[in-house]
Automatic annotation (TrEMBL):
It comes from Parathalassolituus penaei. This is DUF1285 domain-containing protein. Residues 17-82, 93-168 form the DUF1285 domain. Pfam families: DUF1285_C, DUF1285_N. InterPro entries: DUF1285_beta_roll_sf (IPR023361), DUF1285_C (IPR048342), DUF1285_N (IPR048341).
Length: 171
């Protein structure tokens, strides 16, 4: 996708707030759930405005196994079924695989955002750390596109991005 940069800028036209520097007391919970398929829901209904979802994604913090929306004055627990983000688009620029999440965050697969694998409900899933312990799982089409870039070598399959090499597990 030639316009991945433009799409990322359009989706996230503002800098992320410094949530790691904010330490308010826990105020309670809010009925927001991030579903395993990347959908955000509030009180059982799906978010209708992507701008609101992206705003909340910028306020998201993970502490241990819990997820919170954090502002300078409030900290509210939310529920996340699998991972906080979903990788939806992939592009290759100058030997680097660029990833775009469902919340408009652009990542470069490599040293800062390495390809990792984790078990979830007895399935091995690929993911990348987005920031501060928040991970993005690959959406099905993005994963298939990435696998299509793999090179066969030494009896296995490898992904190369930004000088880093990742072996794809056999499972």
């Amino acid at each position: 996708m030639a316009n991945l940069d433009e799409l990322a800028v359009a989706l996230r036209s503002h800098a992320l707030p410094p949530v790691a520097q904010w330490h308010p007391e826990l105020c309670g919970e809010i009925d927001i759930v991030i579903r395993a398929d990347g959908r955000w829901e509030h009180e059982g209904g799906e978010f209708r405005r992507s701008e609101l979802q992206m705003l909340f994604a910028g306020l998201l913090r993970r502490e241990g196994g819990e997820y919170y929306l954090v502002t300078p004055a409030e900290k509210l627990r939310i529920r996340v079924e699998d991972q906080a983000f979903l990788i939806t688009l992939i592009d290759v620029q100058d030997g680097c695989i660029e990833l775009l999440t469902n919340c408009g965050e652009r990542l470069s697969l490599g040293r800062e955002h390495p390809l990792q694998f984790s078990w979830w409900q007895e399935v091995l899933l690929p993911m990348v750390e987005v920031r501060d312990g928040l991970f993005a799982r690959f959406g099905r089409s993005a994963w298939y596109e990435l696998v299509g870039m793999a090179e066969e070598r030494d009896g296995g399959w490898w992904i190369v991005s930004d000088g880093e090499e990742y072996h794809l597990p056999d499972e």
